[in-house]
Amino acid sequence: MAKKPTDGVDYHDKMIIAHAVFACIATLFTAPAAILIGRYFRGRPWWFKAHLWLQSVTASCIIIVFAVGIVAVLSGASHIVQLTGPKADAHHDLGLAILILFLLQYLLGIAAHYTHSAGPAGAQKGAAFPTLSTPKHALRHLHVFCGVAMTALLYAGVKTGMDEWDTVSDMGTRVPSGIVVVYWLFFGIEVAAYLFGWVMEPLRAKKTQRAAASLDGGSEEKVAVEA
């Protein structure tokens, strides 16, 4: 039975609110920021420290999210059914998958940092996507793939969590529509920013190739004149 607003927020709902806050920090802020720094600023000397710091915060948030979520589910007999009973849904499965995948991805990132990469200069000549054509250890590719997959699961986890709140809240409340709008706004901007980086990469590669060709042509002309 739903409680009246005057009864205050009960323990279960307080735990779920904390669960949601830390999930949103990881999903809408730290994880996307870490990915976008890797996408746009890999040439800067500070990028790895910033990337690692953001992913460390994300890891902490995900661990807290998982722990608080378990506490909330175990807070009463009526909530246990969220795992295997009539109120079970994909949200809890996503949560476990996110925890496992992120910890794997985090360790892969640290390990990949100590592997060899030829850097932008090592990209195949004429390649449209230097990021993919640059010789690098397989761990680096796996780390990126796991990072993108994990972030996609985070977005899905938050969305299913908002849907679940409407059915499991002891207060009988629903997620405000404004919060849903903000979620989709962040989602759209962050996904667009990431995809924009891939769209711009071949354009930047062509510009770099033209500049290099122009420089080579100028050098050859100078040699011919001197000869």
UniProtKB/TrEMBL annotation:
<dbReference type="InterPro" id="IPR006593">
    <property type="entry name" value="Cyt_b561/ferric_Rdtase_TM"/>
</dbReference>
<keyword id="KW-0349">Heme</keyword>
<keyword id="KW-0472">Membrane</keyword>
<dbReference type="GO" id="GO:0140575">
    <property type="term" value="F:transmembrane monodehydroascorbate reductase activity"/>
</dbReference>
<dbReference type="GO" id="GO:0016020">
    <property type="term" value="C:membrane"/>
</dbReference>
<keyword id="KW-0249">Electron transport</keyword>
<feature type="transmembrane region" description="Helical">
    <location>
        <begin position="178"/>
        <end position="200"/>
    </location>
</feature>
<keyword id="KW-0813">Transport</keyword>
<keyword id="KW-0408">Iron</keyword>
<keyword id="KW-1133">Transmembrane helix</keyword>
<keyword id="KW-0812">Transmembrane</keyword>
<feature type="transmembrane region" description="Helical">
    <location>
        <begin position="94"/>
        <end position="115"/>
    </location>
</feature>
<dbReference type="InterPro" id="IPR045150">
    <property type="entry name" value="CYB561D1/2"/>
</dbReference>
<keyword id="KW-0479">Metal-binding</keyword>
<protein>
    <submittedName>
        <fullName>Cytochrome b561 domain-containing protein</fullName>
    </submittedName>
</protein>
<dbReference type="GO" id="GO:0020037">
    <property type="term" value="F:heme binding"/>
</dbReference>
<feature type="transmembrane region" description="Helical">
    <location>
        <begin position="52"/>
        <end position="74"/>
    </location>
</feature>
<dbReference type="GO" id="GO:0046872">
    <property type="term" value="F:metal ion binding"/>
</dbReference>
<feature type="transmembrane region" description="Helical">
    <location>
        <begin position="16"/>
        <end position="40"/>
    </location>
</feature>
<feature type="domain" description="Cytochrome b561">
    <location>
        <begin position="1"/>
        <end position="196"/>
    </location>
</feature>
<feature type="transmembrane region" description="Helical">
    <location>
        <begin position="142"/>
        <end position="158"/>
    </location>
</feature>
